[in-house]
Description:
Shape: elongated
Number of helices: 20
Distance between the termini: 82 Å
Strand content: under 5%
Oligomer: single chain
Helix content: over 70%
Structural class: mainly alpha
Radius of gyration: 33 Å
Largest sheet: none
Amino acid sequence: xxxxxxxxxxxxxLLAACASAPVAPPPASKPVRAAAAPAPARVVPGEPLxxxxxxxxDEAVAAHHEMEKARAVDWAILERRWRAVLDVVDLPEGHxxxxxxxxxxxxxxxxxxxxxxxxxxxxxxxxxxxxGVLLEKAGDRRGAQAAYDAAARDFPDDAISRAxxxxxxxxxxxxxxxxxxxxxxxxxxxxxTGARKTMIRVALxxxxxxxxxxxxxxxxxxxxxxxxxxxxSGLLLSRQGDDAGAALQWRKALALQxxxxxxxxxxxxxxxxxxxxxEVQELAARVLADDPSNAPVQLLLGIAERHGGKPDEAxxxxxxxxxLGAGKLPEVYxxxxxxxxxxxxxxxxxxxxxxxxxxxxxxxLPQGSPAPRLMRECQEQVAQAQAAAEAARQMQLxxxxxxxxxxxxxxxxxxxxxx
Length: 419
């Protein structure tokens, strides 16, 4: 395997790790209806709302219903309506519905506070789930787990909280518990897409490709238009060695959800493996537009630019990858060493970069690493260059000595006294 291909293979592994990251869960917020019996947080008849509180509550629900029918929901107007309700009566359902309006306006911190106020008043399943989703979004997995645990405890038949818990356990590497929670969710809701997605991830993590395929086939039938399902199916096909099939699934995922970064990263890795450098440049640029801190993608962009005849641009991309990788991406030094050696003819600089690669990669290099061979080749070239330079210096000295002797002889012949 050439140094370039080995570097690409190593980066492809890093990209695969990036692509395995979970897709952010969508908001689960829904408004609570005042009199809809199936709603978990409905207003129970007989609660002391008072005449004005009841009227304002019903008007807020009716306003939301009319906006939905017109497909023009104005969350700012609904926010004012729910605040008016809460000015009259401190109602958990009012805090929850206010939280929904705030979340839909992108005011997550305020929404979390309202969901917490709602839950302080009474258990509301959707409030707990929504709070967990927002805490996940904020990176607080422990808080999210507590919210989902509360929903699962207070609502034993709830599947959503268990599916969310399954995903959290998978993210933390607790595969057995993730599988258990996913099964518990499916027992309560056999159509739980979230639970089956986690099962695919767990099966892939365990390298049980047959089980992952079985779950994926069922999910493709029940959720054919789910972008994440298409992405996971592509990931499975890639693990099975079907790069063409994986690319088709990832393109389908992007057609369904153009913002699905993991699918674009998958296509980028596939293009790099096949050395389609023009496509790599295009895909890498698009990924970096959404994820500018992705060090492996910066490295792939540099490799593609080098093969596009732009070594200087490649060196800039390598520098960015080195900075973003913070010492955790040794392949950048290998790629830079290859460029300096092959494209710049600067073996002295290449040796320094290859030495950095060996030190960053650890005491034991990956099996078949090209670095030692490249370093020997560079050292031989440096030694040959030094020998050639020394030979040239000696030739120059010899030429200067002969020239000096000739000049002295000529001077002596002209300076001698005539008889």
